[in-house]
Specification:
379 residues; 14 strands
């Protein structure tokens, strides 16, 4: 029997679209990327978290040997302190006579300046002294015996002239009385006679002056000139000696800042040589003004040098410099107070068998503060 077609048609079938690569990337790739980024964020947060740890220091810090200590910074210096030697005279250095590390005694030459100009002036002044001394010898040797006969002959000549003029005047008076000559001739003869007598008196005075020798006051003036010239020579010799800079105390050359050919003396305070007595070293300790009340000069103290914090040097009190000064010696610590004043205390340090200390080396100083202070520290 044939089928009868239905009046109601079947619903249309949905077409199934195949998934593309973009659909797969969106549905699978994005979740994977998101999970990866989430994992990276968790890893980053975990690795960059703040971790509190107390690693051991690379070098064990110094420890105070006292239960209660006053800590301060110190600076090693010579027993005589640092002596900065300069030149009082400006000039060019021609010779350096020492080297770093040399031991010198008082009066040992350190360096010498150019002295050619002063030596030329010295030669001139010495010639002036010789000239003045020769003049004094000449004055003291007066009268010169060879000059006396010359003046004696002049006196005799003047006497003869007086006799001749006296005879001429007598004859002129006789002839004038007889009215033979005029009055003018008589006056001329009288004037000639007076001139002859004056000339005789002058030659006699010259002879007497020569025989009397030099005047005492002339010799005194010459002696004064000699003293003045010798004083000028001594002054130049002193200036020459000042061109050789010498050590004033027994010490050792710590630093040498001068070379041959350099011009020194400008500025005048320029330290050219630094020296000091290092047979016994001192430690200059800066005690903060807030800790002065806790300081006891009789308390024990020790120093620990930087770089060798396990080595301890015993210190012995020497003196207190009772003038509180602004802090100048800095340790470089970030917690260090610089806007303060310090009391400087001097200790002596004798390393004995310990490693040597050097001038300028910084040390950490610990002073026992468990003992009660016995009043104000005395210098």
């Amino acid at each position: 029997m044939a089928a009868v077609p239905s009046e109601v048609s079947d619903p249309p079938r949905r077409r199934i679209r195949r998934r593309s690569f973009a659909d797969i990337l969106t549905q699978v790739g994005l979740p994977i990327v998101a999970l990866s980024l989430l994992g990276f964020a968790c890893w980053y947060v975990w690795t960059t978290r703040r971790v509190t740890s107390n690693p051991p220091p690379p070098i064990e810090p110094a420890h105070s040997p006292f239960a209660d200590a006053l800590a301060a910074s110190g600076l090693v210096e010579p027993q005589t302190e640092n002596i900065a030697v300069g030149s009082a005279t400006a000039g060019v250095v021609v010779q350096v006579l020492v080297k770093v590390g040399d031991s010198v005694e008082p009066g040992t030459p350190l360096f010498r300046l150019d002295d050619r100009q002063l030596r030329a002036d010295l030669a001139v002044r010495r010639s002036v002294v010789s000239q003045a001394k020769s003049e004094l010898v000449r004055l003291e040797a007066e009268p010169r015996k060879e000059k006396i006969p010359v003046l004696a002959a002049q006196v005799n000549e003047a006497q003869a002239t007086v006799l001749r003029e006296a005879d001429s005047l007598r004859r002129a008076e006789e002839t004038f009385a007889r009215k033979v000559t005029t009055e003018q001739d008589l006056i001329a003869r009288r004037e000639a006679y007076a001139g002859a007598e004056a000339n005789l008196e002058r030659t006699q005075a010259d002879l007497a002056l020569l025989q009397a020798g030099s005047w005492e006051y002339d010799r005194d003036v010459t002696r004064t000139a000699i003293a003045k010239a010798e004083a000028e020579v001594a002054k130049i010799e002193t200036d020459l000696d000042r061109l050789i800079v010498r050590a004033q105390v027994a010490s050792r050359i710590l630093q040498l800042n001068v070379r041959p050919g350099e011009f020194v003396g400008a500025p005048p305070g320029q330290p050219l040589v630094i020296l000091g007595d290092v047979e016994r070293l001192h430690v200059r300790v800066d005690i903060d003004e807030y800790d002065i009340a806790r300081f006891n000069p009789a308390a024990k103290a020790s120093a620990v040098p930087r770089g060798s914090l396990q080595t301890r040097y015993p210190l012995e009190f020497v003196r207190v410099e009772p003038f509180v000064v602004p802090k100048k010696s800095l340790t470089g610590e970030t917690t260090e107070r610089v806007d303060t004043r310090v009391l400087q205390v001097i200790y002596v340090c004798e390393p004995s068998e310990l490693p040597p200390l050097y001038v300028g080396q910084q040390v950490e100083v610990y002073i026992d503060a468990t003992q009660p202070t016995s009043g104000q520290a005395t210098p």
